Amino acid sequence: MSSSLVSFSKRDIHETLPGLQFADYHIYANPKGAILHVEDSSYYKPDLDGHQDSVFVPSQQIVESIVHMHKTSQLAYKEGQHPALFCVPNKRVTMEQVEKEYKELLNNALSAQRRWFIALVKIADDDWQRAHVHQGISDIQRIAARELGLKRDWLMTVETETDIAGCPFCGTNLLNPEAPICPTCGKIHNPVAYKALEAKLGVSTVTEVKKVQ
Length: 213
Hints:
This protein is α+β, with helices and mostly antiparallel strands and 213 residues long. Helix content is 38%, strand content 17%. The chain is elongated and about 90 Å long. The C terminus is likely disordered.
């Protein structure tokens, strides 16, 4: 018998149940949702005589295990706060059926995922406040912020940094092109901002600016 694993997660899901036949289960992320149909399986257990007995594992048990393992392994998981993933036991369903016949399950899963996204962003905000380290922010936290329509300084990734203007003197990517002085070579790459800084601080040289700072 088949059971259905329904995912509205924003990332691919790959779970392995060691010992089972067909032990690897992979479901790809899809903005419109994705369904993996899981079949009954079995594993072999040695008996006292050294023989291998086949032990039946129903599909419902498998999909429930996958859902449990994936949810509980996530940062900031708690009941009602997790990726949008659920199972429909002992039935092969289509996405149309999910949206019509299992709408309550779907809405509950999406609500739990939104709460999870909010929790992830809060953790990222706290970590960023303490350290300001981009590598300390995970991809799923960035996904969460984008899904919630939020703007954060930590949304920048290594890939996007290559698109940032570089210093005309040393070529270093400038995290803040509006800053007057390159933090690497110390050259003035933004004369307008530098003049404004001079006026504000009442100094006239880069050396003096560094001393004031």
